[in-house]
């Protein structure tokens, strides 16, 4: 067996794959009737996978400053996809969570993304698929991204 690929080769492969995945995400967002940007969708996904969060914690998960997160939250609150409430633990803290509408958007876009990704995976040689699962699972874990659960699992976080 040959030596493992150099970090630059892995980085290039991940960048190329990420372009494809971003394109799939953009097409999936464009196919729904809601006007949601890719960064706003990411915010919805973070709330879906991590549950209710404080503003600062949400901004940290998104990798943006709190004022940027606040602008996105304001738009999504106005659109009825995010709920903003006073924390039951501290009246000074605001907790953000998905509304039923926000959850529906995440489910619809994720279902479209899943279907398109499944078509791409089906074109791959079967012998490469397990290696891809292993590599992407390790990559997501290294980046701190929680695993995706399918609706068939019945364990979607925040499901209504």
Automatic annotation (TrEMBL):
InterPro entries tied to this protein = HTH_MarR-typ (IPR000835), MarR/SlyA-like (IPR039422), WH-like_DNA-bd_sf (IPR036388), WH_DNA-bd_sf (IPR036390)
A molecular function (GO) held by this record is: DNA binding
The UniProt record lists the HTH marR-type domain at: 7-141
Annotated SMART domains: HTH_MARR
Q: What domain of life is recorded for the organism? A: Bacteria
Which is one Pfam family of this protein? MarR
SUPFAM superfamilies documented for this protein: Winged helix' DNA-binding domain
- Give the keywords, sorted: DNA-binding
Residue runs in coiled coils: none
Q: Does the keyword Isomerase apply?
A: no
Q: What is this protein called?
A: DNA-binding MarR family transcriptional regulator
Please tell me the species this chain comes from.
Amycolatopsis magusensis
